[in-house]
Amino acid sequence: MGYEQILYSVADHVATITLNRPDRMNAWTARMEEEVSAAVHEAAADENARVIVITGAGRGFCAGADMSLLSTAAQSGLGAHRRITGDLPVENGVPDQFRKKYAWLLSVPKPIVAAINGASVGLGFVIPLYCDIRIASSAARFSAIFSRRGLIAEYGVAWILPRLVGLPAAIDLLFSSRMIDAAEAHRIGLVTRVLPEEGFAEAAQAFAKELAQSVSPRSLRIMKKQIWEAQFQSLAESFDAAVVEMVASLQCEDFKEGVAHFLEKRAPAFTGR
């Protein structure tokens, strides 16, 4: 599909999806949702793309749902239900819990990095939670905002947020809907690192490029699957699944390359196989 509200590019094995409504702080629309979904699927299918970055144009990451959507929902009430739900079609090997709206990002077989360059509010707060890594600009600000709109913890946030920041911090953020800065987001574990506002886009790209080129794409793919499926497994189940994957990894090309490049003291040339 043609992209109107996002930008999409692939360079250095990194696919970058930029929310591109800077005049509206990249407020989320139905069209943007369709385009982001299409771009993520495009990147997932592209052998040249090993890491996916989602970021925003201008001063904001995403200021939440466009007010036109909220106004329509406020007027239609239960009529908005269809737009809120909407599981993905059944896909082979994808558990049911990863076919839910936005949660499907956890099933994408490549790491997704949220490069949060500015305001991350409401739905713009939710999307990064389902990315694998969150990097923030020092100018970034975060708020769930739901309780201040008469809403609830949307789209499985009550499940994933406590896993990222712990239960007390999650309750604080959700109940109060207060705005927090990048430093506090880092302190509570909402983001893994904070980078200076100046040069943030370049630094985030450098991080993604390093991830794309220095480690095995196959390892990333399997580890992502292991980590998120383990959230629904016992220790014994996770252990047994790891044994199966370990046996498979010992027979793969990337394992051989991992040993060879170390012994030969050269940069790796992983294939993802």
CATH architecture of the largest domain: Alpha-Beta Complex
- Radius of gyration using CA atoms only: 19 Å
Treating each run of at least 4 consecutive H or I residues as one helix, how many helices?
Answer: 11
Our estimate of the beta-strand percent is 15-25%
CATH superfamily of the largest domain: 2-enoyl-CoA Hydratase, Chain A, domain 1
Going across the major beta sheet, what is the strand order? 1-2-3-5-7-10
- State the helicity in percent bands: 40-55%
CATH topology of the largest domain: 2-enoyl-CoA Hydratase, Chain A, domain 1
Query: What's the N-to-C terminus distance?
Result: 29 Å
Succession of helices and strands: EEHEEHHEEHEEHHEHEHHHH
Largest sheet: 6 strands, mixed
**Derived structural class:** alpha/beta
Low-confidence stretches: 78-85
Name the shape in a single word.
globular
Average pLDDT: 90
> Can you tell me the number of structural domains?
2
Question: How is this structure best described in words?
Answer:
The structure is a single chain. Strand 1 and strand 2 form a beta hairpin. By secondary structure, the protein is α/β, with parallel strands linked by helices. The protein has two domains: 208 residues, Alpha-Beta Complex (2-enoyl-CoA Hydratase, Chain A, domain 1), CATH 3.90.226.10; 48 residues. The protein has a six-stranded mixed beta sheet, with helices on both faces. The chain is built from eleven helices and ten strands. Helix 5 packs across helix 6 and helix 9 packs antiparallel against helix 10. About 3% of the residues have low confidence.
